[in-house]
Structures are given as C-alpha cells and as structure tokens.
C-alpha cells in the first residue's frame, strides 16, 4: 500500500525538499492528517459516526466552513436494497507550499500532496449530493 502511494503521489512530491524521501513524505502526510483532525471538525458540526444518515450537502458545508476549502469526498454506492451511500474517503488537497487548497482546482495544477483517507480498497466514486449518507466510524 505504501509503495503504491509513494509511486503514485510521492514521486511527484519528491521534487520538493520538504518531501523528497519516503520518510519525509509519509511523515508530512501524518502531520497534515493530525493537523486537519477531521473527526473533531465533523463532531463540532454535530456530525458523528453512527447509524443515522446525513445529507451530503450538510457534510460538505461543515467541512468547507471549517477549513475554508472544498475537499473531495468519495463514497461507496448503496448496496443492493439500501438507499444510503457510505463515505469512503475524504481527500484534502494542498499546494506545493503545503497550504490547503480546493480540490476542485483547475486540472492543470499538480497536486503533490493529498491527504488520502481511505476505507478499504473498494471502488469509490464521487458522492451523490442527493442520497442519504452514512458516516462510518472507520473513516480515518
């Protein structure tokens, strides 16, 4: 897993002195992850991992308001017979200077650092704004 992440994102990041080794890259990713502290941000907005469902727009608004940038939220689609999608990954994007930026930046931008928050390896897709959304406790 680590090797894959390093080859996919890290080799691009390696052009930056602050990220030019695997150790620095993953160390910095952990530091950014702790700095973002996603769960407590969502808790402050009254969104907690549980069996109740949330509107995707509510979750997005809470994150955007708190961080000032739009993250990329990906979901597992509803299972057979279910109506709700499940948050699988919340991704924050950073500039090369490691400042948070919108994940909706123009495609030409390179983004060496993404704080990837993954749930398993299942196929994720961008969450639907209209489906009820389940926020599981394993989202890291």
From TrEMBL:
It holds the Pfam family Ribonuclease_T2. GO terms for cellular component: extracellular region. One of its GO terms (molecular function) is RNA binding. GO terms for biological process: RNA catabolic process. Belongs to the RNase T2 family. PANTHER family: RIBONUCLEASE T2 (PTHR11240:SF22). This is RNT2B Ribonuclease. It comes from Scopus umbretta. The lineage of its organism: Eukaryota, Metazoa, Chordata, Craniata, Vertebrata.
């Amino acid at each position: 897993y680590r090797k894959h992440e390093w080859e996919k994102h890290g080799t691009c990041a390696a052009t930056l002195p602050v990220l030019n080794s695997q150790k620095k890259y993953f160390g910095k990713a952990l530091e950014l992850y702790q700095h973002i502290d996603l769960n407590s941000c969502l808790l402050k907005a009254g969104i907690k991992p549980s069996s109740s469902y949330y509107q995707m727009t509510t979750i997005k608004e809470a994150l955007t308001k708190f961080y000032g940038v739009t993250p990329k939220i990906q979901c597992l689609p509803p299972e057979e017979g279910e109506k709700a999608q499940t948050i699988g990954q919340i991704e924050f994007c950073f500039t090369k200077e490691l400042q948070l930026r919108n994940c909706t930046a123009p495609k030409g931008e390179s983004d060496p650092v993404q704080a990837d928050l993954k749930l398993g390896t299942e196929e994720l897709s961008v969450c639907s704004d209209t489906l009820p959304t389940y926020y599981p406790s394993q989202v890291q």
